[in-house]
Design brief:
The chain is α/β, with parallel strands linked by helices. The protein is built from 8 helices and 12 strands. It has 2 domains: 118 residues, Response regulator (Rossmann fold); 95 residues, Orthogonal Bundle (Arc Repressor Mutant, subunit A).
Amino acid sequence: MKILLAEDDEQVADFIVNGLSEAGHSVDRVADGRDALSYCLYNTCDLAIFDRMMPGMDGLSVVKALRAANNELPVIFLTALGDVDDRVAGLGAGADDYLTKPFHVSELLARVAALTRRRNGVADSTSLEVDDLRLDLLGRVARRQGKIIELQSKEFALLEILMRNAGRVVTRTMLLEQVWDFNFEPNSTVVETHISRLRAKIDKPFDTQLIHTVRNSGYTMHGPR
């Protein structure tokens, strides 16, 4: 997912970018409200995270301007202004969610996922299941037959995409775009390498294979047929 972060505190911004990137998201970053508005009006992204207090133009004004332009980009406020009146003002301006600082990255990731599912018309669920494999999106834990499977961040992102598209083919290009944001050469074997590692954890210790290669197309996930 491509996310815009508008945050003028460099240390906080670095922390957020690292957390989102480790979860498989692609993040563009600005530090000024006017730059945030311009970006949202003239570029494509899936979601924006705004601080309330920014130089140039405050977050409330940015969201109001977006909504006045009929721009329905999902927006999460991430700010130290946590009073009830502040939250009401943020949501009333047109934001979709409001998270106060200090915060846990895991909660931010959960809110990003939940907002995306709601916007896509998908039932808001905190877990995914394919056959006997269960993925806990909040706890970021995979279990198969009740056994916890330890996953690295990219492996988790790959597995989530495959499980969300269970029964459908996910191409190599789609995985590169969604997990690595095309930060690798087209002939890179990064997808194949990570799929192999994922299979070693998800499939090899069990009797039933869930991850399948579709020749000349990509990968799919399903149980016995």
